[in-house]
Amino acid sequence: MQQYDIIIKNGTILTMDSRNSVIESGQLCVQGDIIDRVGALDHGSFEARKLIDAKGGLILPGLVNGHTHAAMSLFRGLADDLPLMNWLNNYIFPAEGRMDADFVYTGTLLACAEMIMSGTTTFCDMYLFEDQVAQAAFLSGMRCLAGEVLYDFTSPNYGEIEKGFEYTESLILKWRGNPLVSIAVEPHSLFTCSPDLLTRANELALHHNVPLIIHVAETLYEIAEVKKSYGKTPIEHLDSLGLLGPHLIADHAVHLNEEEIRLIAEKGVRIIHNPESNMKLASGIAPIPDLQSCGVTVGIGTDGCASNNNLDLFTEMDMAAKLHKVKAMDPTVMDAVTVLRMATIEGAKALGLAGITGSLEEGKRADVIIIDTNKPHLTPMYNPVSHLVYAARGNDVSHSIINGRLVMEDRKLLTIDIKDVMEQAKEKSMAVRGWVRD
User: Fold this and answer.
1) pTM value > 0.90
2) Amidohydrolase-related domain location, by residue (predicted)?
3) Per the annotation, does 255 bind a ligand?
4) What is the pLDDT of residue 46?
């Protein structure tokens, strides 16, 4: 009799494979960090060291948060209802200038706890002190693509930009081959990074064969600044510098014209959509349906907690679907299957991780979540995908497995002492209050 490390049974499996295959009364078997079998429930052929009964719930791939700033969980609610540049220049950048490595480590652990408890198993991070982000992600058992933010002004972590490039390269070398953590090169934006910085960042990413990630075309202010400085739109500017390509992940991409959409598709650039943050900061509505119709790979992200206030991808999916329906005045736009794929397999493709995660297929890493559907707001259930996008919430996730490791069981975190982390977070918030008053 075949023995597995983990078997999940008695649930409906949404594989999110190329056919969006659904297996009712399914069984998923994990050996080590790999999904070894996905199929119909078999009562007699298999044994498990750990048997998990899904109790009729939904079994699906762990969600992929394509863009966030995890440690900004400690800035949640700090400066709400402000324009982006006011928010950045008068609150966020000054506060970040007083952070240290321990602040980022604590904030990232808090974010990892929130993400695990709301179904996210993979996240992409852009922030400061990213070695601490990587360590916190690894300790919590999360899959993470991380990168140190690079910009023209002095960083509270590395100082001058020359040290920033050295720090980024050291991260690439340190974490290379890690089963959970990988590194990207991440210049902040076109209005905080000179052409020389962007070109050098691109060369570093290409040299090490890692992604290049940047905020692009997020606000009308950015469009105006880039046109004023370079006489081009942000996408045209990136193209003139040779940065457009399948290694580039563009976060936000809100303000694009038809020619830019065509160019993004032609060059194979990947996009991360952040609808709640874009709405809260009144940045605009990204042309996601147009990008997708041109074949562009689009994932979904929450952005940081200071511009979203939560890291729950279920609410993000719900918002993404409805936002584009009302913009197009068409209820068929951004259907539930499309949006769920953005949070799973398309998100994994956007981060370059589709061979590892994003769908429940034999041979892939075991990144799996279970949704408890025995709840009033999920009863009755005619269409599981519709429920996941329009009705489910992060706290409906009962179990989370990442890389074959059970990290949450029956809503209990197994890798993070959440009480201790929350106490540390409260202590850090006292310092933040002082920074704002100063």
Assistant:
1) yes
2) 59-407
3) no
4) 82
